[in-house]
Amino acid sequence: MFARTAFSTARQCARATPLKQGVRRYATPAGEEKKSSSGLLYALVGLGAAAGGYYFYTTGSAPKPLPPAVPTLTGDGQWIDLRLTETEYISPNTKRLRFALPSEDHVSGLKIASCLLTKYKGPNDQKPTIRPYTPTSDEGQRGYMDLIVKKYEGGPMSTHLHDMNVDQMLAFKGPLLKYEWTPNKHDHITLIAGGTGITPMYQLMRAIFSNPEDKTKVTVVFGNLSEQDILLKKELVDLENTYPQRFKAFYVLDNAPKDAGWATQGRVTKELLKTVLPEPGSGNNKIFVCGPPGMYKAISGNKKSPADQGELSGILKDLGYTKDDVFKF
User: Which residues bind FAD (predicted)?
Assistant: First the structure.
């Protein structure tokens, strides 16, 4: 059993997929997604052409290409101070924090899939607190990066981040590569997340669905306490609407709304995972797990260290999966 705090985060509500038998099929006629994507692509191309034509008409010259992006974090082991420019509550206990990069041509420097480290030392602290986070902004975003941070009672870093004021500085270091991704590395991936564990999963999803050459199918199983704790819900729904043949999301809530056909009441169970996961040994598939310690213990077993995945245990082992089938973020 997980602790009651095992699944918590925040999100807005929209349509989602109810859990039922036979959900391993991705039911949309072949070509429907392609049509939708093509229509959107043509519309964007048309808008870009119109904008470029207007710019040329009004200025007499074509838009200048952007200079090369400059990585902020280069893996050189150096801490870099970045300034907080915006904060926004996205739930009662979760904030989006935006940090300015050194210039408008800088990007974060993160790769897929990687994270960064944050460091803070309070006036009465004997040593600094260091915690990993995965930004939710795109790796190609210039000028800033966003963190989504849930405040945990007694958590020194999350408390400090929530207490920060605009224009304060925070130290960052990285990136730390977690799982190197290449297009079509797996045919199907399943992302089992709890609470803020969705952020590295979202980084992976973003990379897959922003690359037209990557045809990987993605299933998400996302556990939280309540509907308001679901982080990145709008983004997940958008992916499901855009790629119905390749993307499915299932929500598990300790306190599901009454008669909510889109969410399952309770915790992530063996019966649930047996329904949504591909069969063990059925193909080039991978399962990713990220969440609080109680979730790791129940689903896959905990990591021994950032560099040591540890042995596979818990529900996934009981279902017949092997250590090679699973990656623990």
Answer: 131-133, 148, 150, 157-158, 199
Structural tokens at position 268: 């992530």
Cite the annotated binding site by residue number.
131-133, 148, 150, 157-158, 199
- Residue 231 in contact with residue 201, Cβ under 8 Å? no
User: In this predicted model, what pLDDT tens digit does every residue of 116-164 receive, in sequence order?
Assistant: 999 999 888 999 999 999 999 999 999 999 999 999 989 999 999 999 9
From start to end of the chain, where are the E strands? Answer: 70-71, 80-91, 94-100, 106-107, 114-120, 129-133, 144-150, 169-177, 188-194, 217-226, 247-255, 263-265, 285-290, 326-328
Could you tell me which residues are annotated as the binding site for FAD? 131-133, 148, 150, 157-158, 199
pTM for the whole structure: 0.80
**What CATH number was assigned to the domain covering residues 179-328?**
3.40.50.80
* 9-47 confidence digits (pLDDT tens): 333 333 344 444 344 444 444 444 444 444 444 444 454
